[in-house]
Amino acid sequence: MKSRLGRLSLCSIVVVLTALVAACGPAPTAVPAPPELILRNWEGDISADILTAFEAEYGIHVVYLPYESQEEAVAAMRAGEVYDVVVLENQLIPPLVEEGLLAEIDYSNIPNFRNISPNFRDLAYDPGNAHSIPYSWGTTGLVVRTDLVEEPVTRWADLWDPRYAGRVMGWPLSRYMLGIALKSLGYSLNSEEPAEVEAALERLIELKPAIILREWEPAVAAPYLVSGEVVIAVGQADDVIEGQAQNPAIAYVMPAEGGILWGDNFTIPANTPHKREAELLINFLLRPEISAQIINETYYWLPNDAALPLVAPEIRNNLAIFPDAAMLRGAEILLPLSPAGEALHAAAWERFLSSGE
Amino acid sequence: MNDLPMEPRASLRRRVLLALTAVVILAILLITAIILRFAYQTEQDVWQSRQREESRAAARAVEGLIEQVQDDLLLIGLLERDYLIESEVLTRIVRQNIALMEVIRLDRDGNLIVDAYHDGEAVLSNLFTIPQSTWFHLALAGQPYVSDLQISAVSEPYIILAVPASDGGVVAARLRMGVLWEVVAGLRVGQTGQAYVVDRRGYVIAHPDREIVLANTNIARRAEIEAMLQAPDNQWNGSYRNFEGQNVLGVSQPIAGSSWVMVSEIPQREATMTTRRALFVLGGGMLLLGLLAILVANRLMVRLIVAPLERLRDGAERVGHGDLDFQLECSSSDEISQVAAAFNDMAVRLKEREAALAEAQERLRDAFSRYVTPRLVDQVIERGVSLGGETVEASVLFADIRGFTALAEQVSPTEAVDLLNRYFAAVEPAIAAEGGWIAGFGGDSLLAVFGAPILLSDHARHAVRAAMRIRQALAEFNTCQEQEGGPCLRVGIGITCGEMVAGSIGTPERMEYTVIGDVVNTAARLDDLNKQWGTDILISEAVYKAVAVEAIAHPMPAIDVKGKSEPIRIYALEDMPLS
Hints:
- The complex is a heterodimer.
- By secondary structure, chain A is of the alpha/beta class.
- Helix content of chain A is about 35%, strand content about 15%.
- In chain A, strands 1, 2, 3, 4, 5, 6, 7, 8, 9 and 10 form a 10-stranded mixed beta sheet that branches.
- By secondary structure, chain B is an alpha+beta fold.
- Chain B contains 16 helices and 18 strands.
- Chain B has helices at about 10-80, 80-85, 90-95, 135-140, 175-185, 210-215, 225-230, 270, 275-320, 335-370, 375-385, 405-410, 415-435, 460-485, 520-535, 540-545, and strands spanning about 100-105, 110-115, 145, 160-165, 170-175, 195-200, 205, 235-240, 245-255, 260-265, 390-400, 435-440, 445-450, 490-505, 510-515, 535-540, 550-560, 570-575.
- In chain B, the strands form 3 sheets. In chain B, strands 11, 12, 13, 14, 15, 16, 17 and 18 form an 8-stranded mixed beta sheet that branches. Chain B has a 5-stranded antiparallel beta sheet with strand order 2-1-5-4-3.
- In chain B, helix 1 runs antiparallel to helix 9, helix 9 packs parallel to helix 10 (about 335-370) and helix 10 runs antiparallel to helix 11.
- The interface of A and B includes residues 113, 305 and 330 of A.
C-alpha cells in the first residue's frame, strides 16, 4: 500500500500543463513522429521535469497517465489497452506473467539495473526479475504516540493490549489485518495454512471491539494520533511524517514479529509496440541522479543503492522512510495468494466482518 | 625459305594449345575441387570432434568450480550449528577460497545463524528479504540453486549459490564471478578461438571480453543461440556468423549443475587453415604441372607437326617455283613423314611428267616444223596464238611457176616432183627469212602469209622483200639448173595486203591453217596478170605504199577486182634493195 503525499498534486498540475502546452504546439510535420510512451503510475509519483529531461535526451515524449488504483490499470491491461510502462505492486505481477500480459525485460537495454539493491533482486514473486524491476518500496508498521503509552510498544501483539482497547487503529483491508494477526502469532504474512488463518481470524475477531477501522488514504492515522484519540495505529511513513510534524512524540515502530513490506515495480506490458523505448525510459529512471531526485521529491524509498549518496540527509536518515537492516529483519513481502489461499482469506475476512453483529 | 609468313590467326598450333589449355584448366579445377571438398569435410569433422572435446573440458572447468563451492556449502550444511559458531570454520573456508566472497548459514525461517565474508563484502548477511528470495525458497525446497549473474553498483559481479542444510535450513554463498571469468578467459579453443558462457535467457555471463558481460549483452535472439538453448541437452554444433561478426565453427555444451551453456567458437579462418594451405599448395602445384604439360605439348607439337608442316610448305613452294629436284627429309614413319614421302613422290612424278611434256613438245616442234617454219612453231608454242577463225591485217604473196604444166609433160613424174621440191626448198628460206610462212601449196604454186597468225608490224614490206629474195634465190636456182642441164624456171608473184580471215580449216582429221578472202584472191589475180604483162612481180597499191620509199616500181593499168567498186591500181616491182 502506497501513500500519495499532498504536495504531489502540484506536480500533477505541472504534468497536465506540460501536456496541454505540448498539445497546443505546432502541428507535427512530415518527419516521422518519434514514439510516444504511456507511463501508468500513481498520480504525481514522477515529476514532469524528469520526463521532460528524458524527452530532451531521447526525443521520446512520455504521457504520464495516473491511475486511481493499480487494479484499475490491470483491468485495462486485461481489456487490451496498450501502455508502455506500468508501475505495479509485487503481488499483482505473478498472475499477469501467467496470463502473458507482461513482456520479458531485455537487460542489455537496462544496464542501470546494477544500481538496484541486492535486497530486491530475484525475489520469489518474479524469479530473476524477468518481468519486473523494483521501483519503490515501503514498510507498514505501527505509528505510536510514545507519550501516551505506558511502556514501549514493540510488537504487533501490542494492538491487543487491553490497556489501549478502543484507542488502536487499522485499515479494513483483509490482507493487512489478517496478515498482522498472522504475524502476531508468529506465522507468515502470506500463510495459506487453514489452521493458522483460523487462529488469526479468532484473534482478529477478539480485537474487533477494541480497534477503530478507517479506510486507507494517505496519512489517515495522523490526525487521530495527533489528537491522542488513537495511541497505536497501523501506519506507514506518510502517517509518521505528517504526525511528527505536529507532535514529535509520534514515532514509527517496526514490530519485532517483522514488518510488512510492500513494493512497486516497473513492468512492460507484452502488447507495447515500444518495448525498447520503454526499457530506455526505465533505464533513465534508474540513473542514480534521477532516482535520487524522485526520492527527494516524493520521500519514497527507492532501492537504488547508487542514488543513496545523492539523497538529502534528512530523508536518508529518516528510519520511517529508510528503515535500517535491524528494523527490517523478519519483515515480509506481501505476496499473491494461490486461488485456494485467496478463498480462505476471503472467507475469513467475511467472518470477521460479520462477527459480533 | 627466308620469308617465313607470320603464324596465321587460325593456326593449328594455337587452336590445339587453346583446347589443351582449356582441358588442363578444367581438369585442375575439377581435381582441386574434389580434393579440397574432401579435405574441407575431413578438417571440419576433425575440428568438430576436437572442439567438442575442448568445450566439454571447458564446461567441466566451470562445473568443477561450481561443484567445489557447492561441495563446500554442503559440508557446511552438515556441520552442527554450535560447532560452526564456535570453531570459525566458516571464516577459514572463506579466507582460503578467494572465489568465495561470502558464506552464510540460515535456519528454516531465513534467520542468520553464522556468516563469514571478506572485508566489506557482506551482502547476504544484511539482506532482510531472504525469506522472499528465490534462492532461499528453492534451496529450502531441497534444490541446489545457482543464480543469474548479478552485476551491482556496490559489489563485484557475483552469483549466489545456495544448498539445503541438514537441519532444514539453507547455506548460501556469493561466488566471485571474476574467478569464473578468468577460468573462461583462460580456456584454449584452437589457436585463436574463444569460449563463453550464456545463461538460459541468452545473456552472456562469462566472456574473455568482460565489457560484453558488463553490458548485459543478450544474444537469445540469434539463431545459433536459440538452437543451442533448445537443443536436447544443449548440445549443438554448426558454422555461423557470431554476435561479434566473426565467421566461426561453434559447439555448445551444457554446464551441469547450472542452466548455463558453454559455447566454444573457432574462427573459420583457423578451422579451414589446412584446406586453405592445401588449396595453395595443390592449386599452385597443379597450375605449375598444367603449365609444364602445355609447354611440353607445345614443344612436341612444334617438333612433330608444325616444323615438318613448315618444311612441307617450303618444299611445296620450291617445287612450285620449279625446283623439281627438291626432296623432303622423311626419317620416321609417322603421318607427317608419310605426307612428305607422298610429296616427294609427287615431285618425282611431276618431274617425269614435265620431261615427258618437254619431249612431246620437242616432237611436236619437230613435226610441225616440216609444215611451217620452226620460228613460227617456236612462236606459237611460246606465245600461243588463236588458231580459230579471226580477221587479221596481213599480207599474202602468191607465186607460181610459168608454164610448169608444159614443162612437166617433158620430164618424168619423179623428175617433175623432184624439180618442184627443189624449187620449193630454194624459195622457202626466202619467205621464212622475212617472217612469213607457206600456208599452202597448190601444184606449182604457193601461198605465203606475213603478219598472221603472228603479228608482224610491216608485213607488206617483208612480203615485198621476200619476193625480192625469191627472185634472187630463183636466179641462183636457174644457174644451178643450167650447169646441170636442167630446165630453168620463171616465176610470177602477186602481193596484196589488207584484212583477211585466218583460221584452221578442214575436217577434224585433217586441218589446215590458212587465210581466205578477196585480198588472197587478188594476189592470185596479180600473179596471173604477170603472164599478160610479162612482168614477174606485181603488187597492189596498198603494198606499194608500204615500200614506196625504198622500192622501184612503175604503175600498171588499173584492174577491176571482185568486191571492189572501183578498179584497183597495181605496180610492177623493178627492184628493192635488200641490204
